[in-house]
Write a sequence for this structure.
């Protein structure tokens, strides 16, 4: 069974940085996709960034392009989201999710496994 453990959230001032980690286990294939999503109060869950191990590509939402970077450490089975130049509008609960079929999607419904979420709060 695929399990995901997200960590690294916290409180930071606008302009600051945080690095989120998503430790993954239970994949039966080397090809999978990991996505970072976020949900702010009263808003729908939205994609932040996705990484496809099989396709070797990444995706970023327009709102984070140039500020956030997704990366992976295969030896640690961990995917990171480096978040720089944070803004108050980045405040949300951030979730990592996995698509073990690596469909190359950024749609939340295409991700079958979800971590518990980590709170990111950016103060102005």
């Amino acid at each position: 069974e695929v399990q995901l453990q997200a960590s690294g959230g916290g409180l930071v001032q606008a302009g600051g940085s945080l690095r989120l980690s998503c430790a993954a286990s239970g994949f039966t294939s080397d090809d999978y996709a990991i996505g970072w999503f976020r949900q702010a109060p009263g808003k729908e869950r939205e994609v932040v960034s996705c990484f496809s191990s099989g396709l070797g590509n990444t995706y970023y939402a327009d709102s984070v392009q140039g500020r956030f970077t997704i990366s992976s450490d295969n030896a640690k089975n961990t995917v990171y989201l480096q978040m720089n130049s944070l803004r108050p509008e980045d405040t949300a609960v951030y979730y990592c999710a996995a698509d073990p079929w690596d469909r190359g999607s950024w749609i939340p419904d295409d991700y079958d496994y979800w971590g518990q979420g980590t709170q990111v709060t950016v103060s102005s």
About this structure: The mean pLDDT is 93. The CA atoms of residues 49 and 60 lie 4 Å apart. The first strand starts at residue 3 and ends at 7.
